[in-house]
Amino acid sequence: MFNRIFITIIILLVSTSQAFAARTNSTFLDADVESWQSLNFTGGTISSTISCGTGNLITTIRPTFRIRSNIFGSNVRVSVASNTLSGFTNAIFDTGGGATKYVILTNSDDLPPLSSVTNIKTSPTILGNPNAIAYEVLDPDEQFLRTNVTYDDVNDYWNIEKFFPGTANSDLEIPSGPALSNTFGTNDASGDYEATITISFI
Amino acid sequence: MKKYLLFSILYLLFFVPVAQAAHIATNTFYVSAQNTISIVTSGTLSGTIDSDGIISNPLNINFRITTSEDLSGIQLKAFVLDDKGQSISAFKCGSTTPSPSANACVVLADFYHRPTAASILDCECNCPECSLNPDSIAYPGTISISEGTVAYVDNSGSGYFNCEVPSGVVDLSLVVATTPKPGTFSAENPLDEADPYRVEVFLDNIPE
């Protein structure tokens, strides 16, 4: 009994406190990356020459653009408009089922009436579409596993779905070659024939 | 007899040295009192990151350590989770020299779409490339202590800061700057998707 008490006293007097390791609770530093997306034209070929004799487009027109976003599932609409005396109107049409698409370029120095564009879209007649000429246009480029391009043949525009965060490049190509039959004629005045491409998120 | 001995010892230990200090030789007994440590955490813990990778405000965390004796080997640690659920040190520092402050790279990782370990490690390397570190972003960080020193310990790639804390009230802080480390956030090719980015910070190896 005495020994036990004695040892206890000694331990109490001379022992040092035992060391244990502990840690604080976790604190979290958080920063939210805001969602954002952007579109911009990156160049490409945006002008060409029309043969005054044949109406052929001498070189390919191919504007390029870039889609950037940090979210999954960005959707972009690609539409084209041409100017008329009645204002801008949709310049894209297809021959049925979306198989072949055409773009109508109009004379920016001598704007055509809206009826010129309508004539080309319905059933072009050589005298029915002054100052408007149509050329075939290809679907925007699709990037494998990155984007999917679909054509809305009711409203005549394209939708590009970009699947993942990151960058996707695309374009809209008007290949060199002949004008759509009965859309180029002597009543197409000389000047700059233009169409305006618009890309926008939807 | 035993009781007599016990009382004699107690008397000698506690009363004689005090009462008879002027007359007899004394022994000095060092009685170790329990150290008291308190740690209070505060700071600006959240912000937003814009399309250039800039945080809306510096993130900072401060540990106010109040201790009655010097502390050696307290560890400031920071971790992010990879896509396998493993904790990876979020610190990387080029110098291991003890000093009152140190600069480090601090990684924040996407909390919902966790980055790969390779992505996190690329953020910590000297020449990160945005395409190699999706869903993780690194920022310059400053670790400082109001008294004492901090020293980076690489610990085979699982680095932390070893802190020598003198007794008293000491502030140990981590401040994360707002501009990302080059090559870890790209607006050009936005692979760091829109989500909360997070780093876990705590003090370890605290004696109790």
Q: How many strands in all of chain B? A: 13
Low-confidence stretches of chain B: 10-31
Share of helix of chain B, binned: 10-25%
Q: What percentage of the residues of chain B does DSSP assign to strands (E)? A: 35-45%
Rounded radius of gyration of chain B (Å)? 25 Å
Give the helices and strands of chain A as they follow along the chain. Answer: HEEEEEEEEHEEEEEE
Principal-axes shape call of chain A: elongated
Unreliable stretches of chain A: 9-19
Helical run tally of chain B: 2
Order of SSEs of chain B: HEEEEEEEHEEEEEE
How far apart are the first and last residues' alpha carbons of chain A, in Å? 89 Å
**Class from secondary-structure proportions of chain B:** mainly beta
> Based on the structure, what is the oligomeric state of the protein chains?
heterodimer
Largest pleated sheet of chain B = 11 strands, antiparallel
Describe the model:
The complex is a heterodimer of chains A (202) and B (208). Chain A is mostly beta strands and 202 residues long. Helix content of chain A is 11%, strand content 41%. Chain A has 2 helices and 14 strands, in the order αββββββββαββββββ. In chain A, strands 5, 6, 10, 11 and 14 form a 5-stranded antiparallel β-sheet that branches. In chain A, strands 7, 8, 9 and 13 form a 4-stranded antiparallel β-sheet that branches. In chain A, strands 3-4-12 form a 3-stranded antiparallel β-sheet, with no helix packed on it. Chain A is elongated. Chain B has 208 residues and is mainly β. Chain B has 2 helices and 13 strands. Chain B has helices at 2-19, 117-124; strands at 37-44, 46-49, 59-67, 71-81, 87-89, 91-92, 101-110, 136-145, 149-153, 160-165, 168-176, 196-204, 206-207. Residues 10-31 of chain B have low confidence and may be disordered. The chains are: A mainly beta (202), B mainly beta (208). At the A-B interface, helix 1, strand 1 and strand 2 of A face helix 1, strand 1, strand 2, strand 3 and strand 12 of B. Strand 2 of chain A pairs parallel with strand 2 (46-49) of chain B.
